[in-house]
Amino acid sequence: MPSVKKDTKRKKIKNRLRVGIALGGGSARGIAHIGILKALKDHDIPIYCISGTSAGAIIAAMYAFDVPLDTLTMRVKKLSWYSISELPRSKLGLVSNVAIKKIVEEIIGPVDINKSHCPLAIVATDIETGEKIVFHNGSVALAVQASTCLPGLFTPVEIDGRKLMDGGLAENVPLEPLRKMGAEIVIGVDVAHWPSQKKVDNILDVISNTIDILINHQKIVRENFVDISIEPDLGMYNSSDFKKADEIVSAGYRAALRKIPEIRRLLKKKAPQRKPKGLFVRFLDWLSGE
Fold first, then answer.
1. Which element (helix H / strand E) includes 158?
2. What percent of the chain has pLDDT over 90?
3. pTM listed for this prediction
4. Cα separation of 186 and 48, whole Å?
5. 120, 60 in Cβ contact below 8 A?
6. Strand partners, 134
7. Distances (CA, A) of 163 to 10, 127, 143, 154
8. Smallest Cα–Cα separation from 101: which of 115, 84, 121?
9. What is the mean pLDDT of residues 136-148?
10. Among 4, 82, 123, 188, which is least packed by CB within 10 angstroms?
């Protein structure tokens, strides 16, 4: 298995509010998440916990296991619908997306979600009950495969007796898990809001856009859970534009930059007020060099 150099520049910053970020599904448009995470890192906005659905699950998993964002950009350029599709062993789908599981394992290994370097949640949907399934442990590669399993195209991924598919059917921008993981400020990233150009080039785009339409109503519900919403301008890209990764990453970066002042104001507003230290405590701090 090729080794991946970990991103050692991320620092744990004490005495800061816990910021959580939810990365939504959107096929190739999900590449914008890389630019958003890069912008937050460049401007010293620390991420305490992260959740992901579908394309967002891939990026969230990689981030949580410290895969460098530049490395991730290079890898997604090589993706296509055909490279992540294999012949199925089931009549429940046209093809299998087991290749996604293999890619995740190739990059970060056959690891458990709870071994991530920051709290991670991956969302899938039980296609038989409609129930939202949130993974906090178990195989990260298998959870990502389930979360990215487009209905009508890929065969369901069976985990613990459940047939699981794309998490976007249940919660495309997975905000709720962040609150449960302790996030005090929640950032939601929506890359699937309906684009201004509805161009489709193949059946894969048709299926992906169908999902986008179905989940569009979730936006109304999402506004009650999110503190900051980031919606990159991706109207000129379709769900197959993996080769335009650099452009999509840049669009995500620009969208996050526009939100940095708002995020900082919220961090300042919600920051706990410290009580002034007494003389004796300040003297001890001086002795200890703090």
1. strand 157-159
2. 61
3. 0.84
4. 10
5. yes
6. 123
7. 36, 6, 12, 12
8. 84
9. 97
10. 82
